[in-house]
Amino acid sequence: MKHFRFAILICLVLLPALSRAAGDGYGYPIEGPYAATILGTPPDLKAELPAVIPVKELVLDLIPDLKRPPVFYYDDGLRCSYVCQKQKAPLVFLIAGTGASHQAPKVVAMMKALYQAGFHVVTLSSPTHPNFIISASHSHVPGDLTEDAADLYWIMENVWSKLKEDIEVSEFYLGGYSLGGTQAAFVAKLDEERKTFNFRKVLMVNPAVNLYNSVSQIEGLLNRIPGGEQNIARFFNDTINKFTVFFSRGQFVKFNDEFLYAAYKEKLFTPEEAGGMIGVVFRFSSAAMIFDSDVMTNGGYVVPKNRTLTATDSLTEYFRVCAHLSFLDYFNEYFYPHFLRKRPGLTKEALIAAESLKSIEGYLKSSPKFGVMTNENDFILATGELEYLRQLFGDRAKIYPRGGHMGNLEYKDNMAYLVGFFKGTGGQL
Amino acid sequence: MITVTFHRFCRLVMVPILLLSLAGCATTAPTILPEEPPMHTVEELHGFRIAQIADPWEGFNRSMYKFNYELDKYVLLPVVSGYEFVTPTIVQTGVSNFFNNLVEVRNLTNSLFQLKGMESLTTLGRFVANSTIGIGGLFDPATSLGLERRNEDFGQTLGHWGCSSGPYLVLPFLGPSNARDTSGFVVDAGIRYGIVAAIDPFENVDNGTATAIKVGVETLEVIDKRHQESFRYFGSEYPFEYDMIRYFYNKKRDLEIMK
To answer: Starting at the edge strand that comes first in sequence, how are the strands of the sheet with A397-400 ordered?
Structure first.
């Protein structure tokens, strides 16, 4: 009898796992889109990557006579990373996602996988990253796909002029994740005119289709936290306290992935709260973008116009103000007026439509060089946008059943697909 | 004895401070245009306070934060990368293990001060195992034996017995701290100096040689400390990094005291 009960128990435990494996044949385990985004891939399911690769950093002084206010004393030029093969090989440029740097863990994971597979790799910070806004953006106002693509292209040309003495390149490829994926499409389009690189393959990983929609989706996550968007300070402080209490009660010694998984298994947070955390982190990153852009343009948005902030001025109040502003505030009150001044008569609708893959869909549909890799439950896609990607790219869209936004990037199958795409076997895996 | 340590500390730290602060005197005042109020100010927030920690010495602290950035950039990081370049990785690990093992004495005294029985035994076990099987601390067999490192210092001891953190304070070279942890640091340094004086490892060596060895060891310790710390000031380029570090330092210390 005892054995019988035990067997039933085993079946009950194994059944969901087995049925899932039979159902979609995809082994990435985390169901919820927010949990997947936060936790990423469990260590034993990650693709095997080298622990250390010989990465070098470039610091580019791109804009002559650029005046950096003293508050940005630590910024001394645009930073990017590269790693090279000894022999002739294709070179892949990678663009990081919103607010992320050229050394962000996700772009570094991609870099390691591609370097291991025999490519030269260059990683670039997102045009929304503070260093880019200060030292590489001509307008210092991030978010416009066409202008940001022009800046990115110009940086790639600069990097290439520095590297071409030392390495042999057979052909050029391009990739990007999240916002960087969307930007990659616009960079590739610009390359059709400029022809410096003649990119042969372009991979967009978890791209946004329309920036305004994606930003609205992420901002929407904050509406579901207790008390809604206005309560994000309390929500943030409560979340940190909850982590603290959980940590101090358990036998944890380090605040690491293991601890995060334990918190996940204990269901420490509801899906709404997990979504809220993603929304808050997004706010932290948009706060930096808003502040740096405002300081660089003397825009009078959050910092008094004509005030020169020094290295020792308190920025705490600006932080509070910027974290309180949503990305949509930035769009309506700062971004749109900036473009209206440059292009009189521009409507908001026209600007929103321009910040979308749809504005270049004819090109994307006709060019065989593109590939897309995303997930069914990627919450940055609005209703209908996943279907749109399927229709636009057909077989060239690889859509995984789960993984949230970038949560499954480092999962074995995903990394194999990424490498395979550039190796020329993409779509076969 | 504290004064001697302090003098050494000053020699290591104050000279670059003076050099760097003199370098800062050459800036000129910008042309002044009247300021205009921005579209959004803190007044509209109604008590919206995210990740905030009281910081009455903020002006001083931000100057120190900048000083540490420059000390890193012009002095410590070049020295550390030179060290990493010429020293084989296995030697670097050995050096780190050696100094970390010495810190177990601090961990042990402070677990005892907090009357943490099990933890004191673990730390004592670690120290004995690493000093013997680990050949004077060059290896760390204790961790693989399941004896996890438990960091304790006098700041934590003060916190454990109910002393509040006091104002946030950024120290030169050492970085984020607060009034309580700074006093704790001084007490720990004093205890360590006392122990070294009592053991007197250079009993049979003449004075000049002993001083040279001590200075050499202390310099290596400073380099190793920076080598072990992966944090880079403004490595994130995040404009509110100072605010974030202030918040998370505070939270981290609360957590360490609770443990």
So the answer is: A56-60, A78-83, A120-124, A89-95, A169-177, A201-205, A370-375, A397-400
Q: Which two tokens stand for residue A276?
A: 């809220």
Q: What is the pLDDT of residues B159-206, one digit of tens each?
A: 999 999 999 999 999 999 999 999 999 999 999 999 988 888 777 788
* Residue B50 to chain A, least CA–CA distance (Å): 4
Predicted local distance difference test score (pLDDT) of residue A158? 97
Backbone angles phi, psi at B176, to 5 degrees: -60, 135
What residues of chain B lie within 8 A of the CB of A316, using their CB? 52, 55, 58, 240, 243
The answer to whether B131 and B101 are in contact (CB under 8 A) is yes
Question: CB–CB of A301 and B45 under 8 A?
Answer: no
Model confidence band, residue A2 (pLDDT cutoffs 50, 70, 90): very low
* Residue contact A321–B45, C-beta within 8 A: yes
pLDDT band at A253 (very low <50, low <70, confident <90, very high): low
Tokens standing for A233?
Answer: 């300070």
**Residue pointed to by tokens 């540490």:** B68
How close is the nearest chain B Cα to the Cα of A119, in Å? 26
Q: Residue B4 has which token pair?
A: 């001697």
Does B33 contact chain A (CB < 8 Å)?
A: yes
Q: Using one digit for the tens of pLDDT, what is the confidence trace for A20-39?
A: 444 678 999 999 999 999 99
Two structure tokens written together for A200: 């042969």
pLDDT of the residue at B52 = 82
Cα dihedral: A176, A177, A183, A189 (round 10) = 50
Asked whether the beta carbons of residue B51 and residue A237 sit closer than 8 angstroms, the reply is yes
pLDDT value at residue A23? 63
**pLDDT, position A256:** 74
- For residue A291, list chain B residues with Cβ-Cβ distance below 8 A: 239-240
B95-130 exposure pattern, b = at least 16 Cβ within 10 A, e = fewer: bbbbbbbbbbbbbbbbbbbbebeebbebbbebbebb
Contact B255 A307 (CB under 8 A): no
| Residue-wise DSSP of A85-113 | -SS-EEEEEEE--TT--TT-HHHHHHHHH
Q: Kindly indicate whether the domain formed by A33-210+357-423 is annotated with CATH number 3.40.50.720.
A: no
* pTM of the model as a whole: 0.88
Q: Where are the domains of chain A?
A: 33-210+357-423, 217-342
A314 touches chain B (CB under 8 A): yes
Stretch B72-90: mean pLDDT: 95
Interface residue B66 vs chain A (CB under 8 A): yes
The CA distance from B81 to B87, in Å, is 10
Of B55, B59, B234, the CB nearest to A312: B59
Whether the predicted pLDDT of B130 surpasses 80: yes
3-state secondary structure of A40: coil
Per-residue pLDDT band at B5 (split at 50, 70, 90) = very low
Torsion angles phi and psi, residue A242, rounded to 5: -60, -45
Mean residue pLDDT across chain B: 87
Q: In angstroms, rounded to a whole number, what is the distance separating the alpha carbons of residues B76 and A298?
A: 35
Q: How many angstroms away from the CA of A276 is the closest CA of chain B?
A: 14
Cβ contacts from A onto B, under 8 A: 119
